Amino acid sequence: MASLRCFGRGSSSLSTVRADATPHARRRAGAGARSEDAAAQFLETQGLTIIERNFRTRRGEIDLIARDGPMLVFVEVRLRTSSVFGGAAASITGPKRARMIAAAGAYLSRLGREPPCRFDAVLFDGTEGSRLTWERNILDV
Q1: What is the C-alpha separation between 71 and 21, in angstroms, rounded?
Q2: 109: Cβ–Cβ under 8 A, 6 or more apart, which residues?
Q3: Which residues of the chain carry a pLDDT beneath 50?
Q4: Cα 33 to Cα 54: distance, rounded to the nearest angstrom
Q5: From CA 116, how far away is CA 51, in angstroms rounded?
Q6: Which of 79, 81, 83, 107 is the least crowded, having the fewest Cβ atoms under 10 Å away?
Q7: Rounded to an integer, what is the distance from CA 121 to the centroid of its chain?
Q8: 52-80: per-residue pLDDT in tens?
Q9: Coil vs helix vs strand at 82
Q10: Cα dist. 127→19, 31, 83, 114 in Å?
Q11: Are 75 and 33 contacting, i.e. CB atoms less than 8 angstroms apart?
């Protein structure tokens, strides 16, 4: 994989749910799509421009890709209604981070150039994701 140099640590959301999914799985998929929509709206109010949603590769996925001036921003959106397992931020594990980096590398390889970039997270914690936190530069790549 080409090196990935980042600084610091368009369309509607797609939600794919298997036809035989349980009602709980369907609710979770819907909640995830709503969280991504809310995150995109929030980031736009902060001056970012959403350029892609749900960029998927075999190696990983990026929920939102945005521009913040000249900076390309890869955004992970996490929703946790309970803090029993550490909340939304704690759910971005080492393997998840590796998949984010791999997916970002695939996206950058399509561009043919490497603009300055960073990884952010929009975290929803609490009942129905009532608390939003925007963490910038969550990965040191």
Answers
A1: 38
A2: 2
A3: 1-18, 23-29
A4: 10
A5: 15
A6: 83
A7: 6
A8: 999 999 989 999 999 999 999 999 998 87
A9: coil
A10: 27, 12, 10, 39
A11: no
